[in-house]
Amino acid sequence: MGTDTAVHEAPPVRGGRPWPRWPRPAAGAAGALLDVLHSGRWSIASPYGGGPTREQRFAAEFADYLGTRHCIPTASGTAALMTALEACGVGAGDEVIVPALSWAASASTVLGVNAVPVFADVDPRTLCLDPAAAEAAVTPATKAIVVVHLYSALADLDALRAVADRHGLALVEDSAQAHGSTYRDRKAGTFGDVGTFSMHHTKVLTSGEGGAAVTDDPVLARRIEHLRADGRARAGRPPAVGLPELVETGELMGSNRCLSEFQAALLSAQLPELDALNAVRRANAELLDGLLSESGLRPQDTSAGTTARTYFGYAVELPGEEFPGLTAAAVGEAVTAELGLHVRPVYAPLYASPLYAPATRPRFALGPGHLERLDPGRYDLPRARRAARSWLTFHHSALLGDAADMHDIAEAFRRVLSRPSARAA
């Protein structure tokens, strides 16, 4: 499709007009960063300064926003996932069920705690972990299930929570793409034993890099606190000014996966704007759903319990019955050319992703047979494979535009799908 002469018959739909930028600083972000710059305290490991750190403030704000008891900020979403898994007791040789369609961290974090990711297929309409497939993957070695809320969909939390409870498994709820969404009027991230978030620069709540783990369980919270701060935790009462606030408790060995004070200040500034920006994205996505449906495309569904969606990415399925040979990669390339907006296929199945390659890391060769358990060649999951060929997605920043922008997107898809090369594909 990239060489089709029809591409050149009319100027691109967008004509070079820019799309909304992301990230963008919230009101007060610059002042908050300047305050940290001159505070003398850039890390939670800095000497106590007489009051709560920025990290403590953001943790309290985010916990209150979500309606959960404990929030432990981390250096990244990856760090949040790894500490969550370890806090739940996952370790060497254990199996963790993960969705076959997700970003690489869903698998690499399991490898990172010396466990074995077991891929399960996804629901064909939500692209999230299918509860029946997850239950079918349970073995005596299974220790946990990681559920990922993908693009704009929430997974079936009722069913997945029931599967985990039936088999005595930990449920880790990866909400890296779901800040502010709700399921049965509760915030995503509060249904698992631990919920995890990423604050990477692509996310709807961002500090460039960063993350958080949340839980109602004080035991899990204390484990995560130790795991992300080299085995240290805050004492019950603050020390004298100028002394270290983190105490070497000897309870649990950890690593340094802490959020900086600069990142925490950014997040505190960004959080009050999250709901309003999510509402703009949601309204534009609903308009776009109707426009794209007119061209036979099928927007991503979400699970029945969803009461508010968050759009990290907008995802749509190509009309395969009408265009049986059409690939998402070809359509995405052509729509990108029309819009100047990166429209691309959804994630490759993890077992087929170039980012999942355990054999390239000697650290994962833990003993006879272990690498064989990690071999991606063990899997071929049809719904994940089909999704990679037939679904497209683009970043949420485009949904911060206006109605005219949504009509541009719909017109670009209509134009590309109406070309003779599309119908002959």
Write the topology of this structure:
Layout: H1 29-37, H2 54-66, E1 70-74, H3 77-87, E2 95-99, H4 105-112, E3 116-120, H5 131-136, E4 142-148, H6 157-166, E5 170-174, E6 182-183, E7 186-187, E8 194-198, E9 211-215, H7 218-227, E10 232-234, E11 246-248, H8 261-270, H9 274-293, E12 298-299, E13 306-308, E14 313-317, H10 328-339, E15 344-345, H11 370-374, H12 382-390, E16 391-395, H13 403-417, H14 420-424
Structure description:
The chain has 425 residues and is an alpha/beta fold. It has two domains: 5-24 and 274-424, Aspartate Aminotransferase, domain 1; 29-272, Aspartate Aminotransferase, domain 2 (3-Layer(aba) Sandwich). It contains 14 helices and 16 strands. It has a seven-stranded mixed β-sheet with strand order 1-9-8-5-4-2-3, sandwiched between helices. β6 and β7 (186-187) form a beta hairpin. Residues 1-8 have low confidence and may be disordered.
